[in-house]
Write a structure and sequence with these properties.
There is one protein chain. The chain contains 15 helices and seven strands. It has 315 residues and is an alpha/beta fold. The chain folds into three domains: 135 residues, Rossmann fold (3-Layer(aba) Sandwich); 61 residues, Helicase, Ruva Protein, domain 3 (Orthogonal Bundle); 88 residues, Zinc Finger, Delta Prime, domain 3 (Up-down Bundle). The strands form two sheets. The chain has a five-stranded parallel beta sheet with strand order 2-3-4-1-5, with helices on both faces. Strands 6-7 form a two-stranded parallel sheet. Strand 2, helix 4 and strand 3 form a beta-alpha-beta unit. Helix 7 packs across helix 8 and helix 11 runs antiparallel to helix 12. The chain is globular, with a radius of gyration of 23 Å.
């Protein structure tokens, strides 16, 4: 178990990328054509944007991909100097053994507006010798002139069955036994984030030779969904004191943070209304209350007090 599994099992080719079949099918055409426009990969964290960019560069540029590929994290180098120095100097160089060079900018939505305008000018100037791949979580933060110069690919959260299949494969490769409940727990809390799921799996592997539900909960500091469900049920049936005690128990014994508890409460009430066990009008009001609690906690209010106040609104 040397090194992060998320890197050890990172897909190296487009065919190995998990859960983005339609996007991969479109991207393969660029290899066949020997040409590639500027691309924008948008979507939540851990769904394969960076992995796909690396695999695409290897596929299109071939054996000289390292000499013709520049990767920058725009959240670390978000100012205009990054564009003026790193990107411009790289674009000026002639491609080595490849038709063009590729610049991959990760988290480009964190770049300043001035840097984005400078980037747009570089994209215009070096269209014949370089192609850009821009990755972001929120495309709305990218200026329109950049968006209009890119083919946009929207990455969806990875499906639960795809994540579970990948986790089972890693367990088999590493020699760990696993239970379905253990992998299902990882998948539930990953919420479509493949990177998070692999990291949790590796952490759970330190608990023993088998990945079980208990070993997973031992490393994620989250409450069991059934405990949250029981807490909310107690509040909705008028037993506030029991609900409050369950809240304190889960937060102290299971180490659940206030932000995570708010998220799990939201997930539980959403499941109730989806299953027809809660009236939609009640759900709408509770979502508003949950959002207000989330805001207050993130602004620095005492999490336990805010969560107890939230539970009181379930009465």
């Amino acid at each position: 178990m040397i090194g992060p599994w998320v890197e050890k099992y990172r897909p190296q080719t487009l065919d190995e990328v998990v859960g983005q079949e339609q996007i991969i099918k479109r991207l393969k055409n660029y290899k066949n054509e020997g040409n590639m426009p500027n691309l924008m990969f948008s979507g939540p964290a851990g769904v394969g944007k960076t992995t796909t960019a690396l695999a695409l560069a290897k596929s299109v540029l071939g054996e000289y991909w390292k000499q013709n590929f520049l990767e920058l994290n725009a959240s670390d180098a978000r100012g205009i100097d990054t564009v003026r120095n790193n990107i411009k100097n790289f674009c000026r160089l002639k491609p080595v053994g490849a038709p063009f060079r590729i610049i991959f900018l990760d988290e480009v939505d964190n770049m300043t507006k001035d840097a984005q305008h400078a980037l747009r000018r570089e994209m215009e100037m070096y269209t014949k010798t370089a192609s850009f791949i821009l990755s972001c979580n929120y495309p709305s933060k990218i200026i329109d002139p950049i968006q209009s110069r890119c083919a946009i690919f929207r990455f969806a959260p990875v499906k639960s069955e795809d994540i579970k299949k990948r986790l089972a494969y890693i367990c088999e490769q590493e020699g760990y036994n696993y239970t379905d409940e253990g992998l299902d727990t990882i998948v539930y809390f990953a919420e479509g984030d493949m990177r998070k799921s692999v990291n949790v799996l590796q952490s759970a592997a330190t608990e023993g030779e088998e990945i079980t539900e208990d070993s997973v909960y031992g490393v994620i500091s989250k409450s069991k969904p059934q405990d949250v469900h029981n807490m909310i049920t107690a509040a909705m049936t008028g037993d506030f004191m029991k609900s409050r005690d369950l809240l304190r128990e889960t937060m102290i014994l299971q180490g659940t943070s206030g932000e995570d508890m708010v998220t799990q409460i939201y997930q539980d009430v959403t499941k109730r209304v989806t299953d027809g066990k809660m009236d939609s009008s009640v759900y709408i009001q509770l979502v508003n209350d949950i959002a207000e609690t989330d805001f207050r906690i993130r602004e620095g209010s005492n999490p336990r007090i805010q969560l107890e106040a939230l539970l009181a609104k379930f009465l």
